[in-house]
Amino acid sequence: MRGLTRAFALGLVLAFIATACTGGGTTTASPTAAASPTSTRPKFDLATYQYSLQTKGKIRIGTQEDNPPFSVKTPATGKWDGFDVAYGREIAKAIFGESDDPDKFIEWVPVTSATRIPSLTDNKADVIIKTFTINEDRKKQIDFTDVYFRTGQRILVKKDNTSIKEAADLAGKTVCAQRGSTSEQNITTATSGAARPLLLDSYPACLLALQQGQADAVSTDETILFGLAKADANTKIVGKYFSTELYGIGVKKSAGGDRTGFVDFLNRTQVAMITNGTWAKLYEQYISPVSFDKKRTPDD
Amino acid sequence: MPGGIAFEFPQLYFIGLWVTIQISVLGLLSALIIGTVVAVMRVSPVAPLRWIGAAYVEFFRNTPLVVQLFFLFLGLPLIGFRFSTDTFEHIFRGAAIGMGMYHGAYVAEVVRGGLLGVDRGQIEAARSLGLSYAQMLRYVQLPQTFRSVIPPLGNIGIALVKNTSLASTIGVTELLFAAEIVESRTFRAEEAFMAATLLYLALTIPLGIAVNALERRMLVAR
Predict the structure, then answer these.
(1) Hey, how many other C-beta atoms are within 10 angstroms of the C-beta on A190?
(2) Domains in chain B, ordered, with CATH?
(3) How far is residue B111 from each of residues B6, B116, B121, B155, measured CA to CA in Å?
């Protein structure tokens, strides 16, 4: 299919250059503007990756099964839900057109923190939307979109804990974090290696370890801690941000033009989502119930 | 050089390897002890002992090792028991005991087969010579059993060494854990796991050779 796309691109090289010069603005109309209930699919330049996805009729979205409030797969129904999940559905709509059930165009790929990059480089997923912190090391391996969510790392402890108030208090304490995440490295940095990291596969497992006294604290991005604190009323979130986490959507680096225009397209989709209030709606639906605040853009 | 990354992160790889060796040795010893006791229970003349032995084997053989490890790690503290007040000691001991209990079920089945393989006439002869049941086991039935079950025990031992990698799921910093940490820091997945593979082979291949050598020696003695 990619070969075919490339052949089209060769044949239409003039058209391609023309649209590239105008920034592609005419070929990638805002999805919401283009989409009325009866409208057909959005139109894309033939050389772009979003076009080849549209032709294929499927986008593979990698996210985690137990990462509330961002992504949760309900075991009973097999349905996915959460901020990252809803964001993924918006992307699917932007590619395949408005739909009551965008999931019919989506293949959900379960990933963990450690498998996010390999599932892109091994071409198991088209995008990773999973509280994915943008950093320089990762940028060498994959491409990121613009920041779609901004948060920072804080600390979750039991309600009756009075000894841990800030990151510095974690020295000598057992701190649970997810293996292969930036949280683990931030803990080590913030305590100059004096904390004892207990590294597990997911944050619900960390919460269990905290509840049973196997860990003194859980530390990761505040938004994930919100989800845990909501699940257990006997816990509280303490301390100031000791890191800034900027989440982006991960995409495989374009090799031989196989991801042409994709990151730009995702960025434009996000601008449209912020402009038309979809982003704010998702934040209100998924994040506000645990954070008790409202945001209209990631930078609020 | 394949696996050269291990020397860039010796702190992670070789400490991880050492933890893997410790869990393997402790797990193997406890598996042998548990397995032998359960096997003797399963062939004993006392019916309730046979039932308990059978229940043990069926339970531990038919539930996933990861689930058993999680139970030891987080389930036991729920009912107020932990192997150590220190979390890292708790998960280390939990992993070693988990290895022993799970593989003990397999050892029990192998040893039971060996016990049943001993000629009935020898057992009756021993008993009629005035040996107690325990003496008969000790001097007649068990020695012959261990000689005949060395190859299948070797298989269980090798499986145990590889299964220690599951201890990483409860946070034990063993060899696979080390490889995953290195992978997440360097993104050199192929190299990171190649190094772990080679180190696992460095444990399992000599173990296999040792088992074969032991088997040959025991055959000559027979």
Answers:
(1) 22
(2) 19-178 (1.10.3720.10)
(3) 38, 9, 19, 13
Q: Do B87 and A117 touch (CB under 8 A)?
A: no
pLDDT of A38: 45
Structure tokens at B6: 């291990």
Give pLDDT, residue B219.
74
Chain A positions touching chain B (beta carbons under 8 Å): 113-114, 117-118, 137-138, 140-141, 174, 179-181, 185, 196, 198-201, 205, 208-209, 212-215
> Residue holding tokens 């057109």?
A97
Nearest to B77 among A181, A199, A213 (CB): A213
Q: Please tell me which of the candidates A114, A185, A200 has its beta carbon nearest to residue B183.
A: A114
**CB distance from B102 to chain A under 8 Å?**
no
CATH number belonging to the domain at A2-148+248-291, selected among 3.40.190.10, 3.40.50.410, 3.30.365.10, 3.30.70.100? 3.40.190.10
Look up the pTM and report it.
0.72
Spatial separation of the C-alpha atoms in residues A300 and B188, rounded to whole Å: 36
CB neighbour burial string for B40-71, b if at least 16 within 10 angstroms, e if fewer:
bbbbbeeeeeeeebeebbeebeeeebeebbbe
Architecture of domain A150-245: 3-Layer(aba) Sandwich (3.40)
Distance between CA atoms of residues A87 and A59, nearest Å = 13
Q: What is the DSSP string of B61-125?
A: HSS-HHHHHHIIIIIHHHTT--S-SSHHHHHHHHHHHHHHHHHHHHHHHHHHHHHHHS-HHHHHH
Mutation for testing the B interface, residue in A117, A138, A200 having most B CBs under 10 Å: A200
What was the pLDDT predicted at B34?
97
pLDDT tens for residues B172-217?
Answer: 999 999 998 888 888 788 899 999 999 999 999 999 999 999 988 8
Question: To 10 degrees, the CA torsion angle through A138, A141, A145, A150?
Answer: -10
Please give the Cα distance from A209 to B74 (Å, whole number).
Answer: 7
Residue A11 has pLDDT above 60, yes or no: no
